[in-house]
Write a structure and sequence with these properties.
The protein is of the alpha/beta class. The chain has 2 domains: 1-118 and 307-362, P-loop containing nucleotide triphosphate hydrolases (Rossmann fold, 3-Layer(aba) Sandwich), CATH 3.40.50.300; 129-305, Glutathione S-transferase Yfyf (Class Pi), Chain A, domain 2 (Up-down Bundle), CATH 1.20.1050.90. The protein contains 9 helices and 14 strands. Strands 1, 2, 3, 5, 6 and 7 form a 6-stranded antiparallel sheet that branches. A hairpin with a 2-residue loop joins β5 (70-77) and β6. α8 runs parallel beside α9 (320-332). The longest helix is centred in the middle third of the chain and has 39 residues, at 177-215. The radius of gyration is 22 Å and the shape is globular.
Amino acid sequence: MGYFKNITLNNFRNFENYSLNFSKECNVFFGINGCGKTNVLEGISLFSKGKGLRKDRLNNLIKKNHKHFSIKSDFDNQNIIYNFLIKSEYRNDNVKKIFSVNEDRTKDIIDTIYNLTTFLYFLPETERLFLASPNTRRNFIDQLIFTYNTKYNKTLNLYNKYLLERSKLLKTNILDEKWLSQLEKYISLYALEIYSFREKQIGILSEYLNKYLNYYNLNFKISIKLNDSFFTKNITEDLIVKELKKNRNKDALIGGCSVGPHKSDYIFYVNKDFLASQLSTGQQKTLILLAFLSQSKYLIDIEKRKPILLFDEVCSHLDELNRSILLGLVESFNLQIFMTGTSKDLFSFLSTNTNFCNITEK
């Protein structure tokens, strides 16, 4: 897998014209709050599918009083240099992200690049993974799946699209039974796929997490359980369709859809019955860092993919153990990693090979 050699941001967020060169190993952006550290990470993340690590509206990425933004980068994959360009473009009053590689915008080349650039994100809110809403945990699991299954987002998007169409149809006075039944078949098909992908990912995460807990001599085990009142091991497409039909009146009244993977939660337990959310803040941070370590190990060993790590404000609650884990993540796999923090001193535990950049001074 390759690495980013540099980046140039034009009229992007707070930057008018800003360039940086990167190390193929560890890069740290530091500076005062609001200087644009996270904006640089976001710019890098936009070279993946979707809206980047913040998932913000594209028109919000354009610098105030400007009409467009662009982001350029040279990407090195086995000594072959690809010139990446992302720019905003207005189409039918909507802002679209346009991605080209060596001035080529064809689907084949873009799909090839997406398969070369696997990202793992750590954001400040990730620290509250075990305390946050079920949606946060679903999104976390989905992010991990997407690191090796680039078509997974299409499954999620179609599932949500058909959920929305069904909800709109149920609110009308005259139902199109044929179309409604077809929508419910689509929903059940994609629901099964999502359940299956998430079940596989939970198995991967549990296996590797427990290996690393043992490696770091932490005397507990993690189990992850699906909390979904509808799901069973014997669930089928017909069972989901039947449940959707049964809940039509209820769903028409309250809106949304009463059953499906969009209602799932994933609960993390320590030693079978103790909630991970009850651990100390530092212990929760340990588990989260080990989760990133676990996914990286799986991607490299099994999927033969090297992720690029984007870690925003990762240095809070870093005791000696957590520094050791983060250092292991930086040094064990020869990955390109980008981290942000308010001070260079926060990263004093890193090797002298780290590329430090003071964003405030740029």
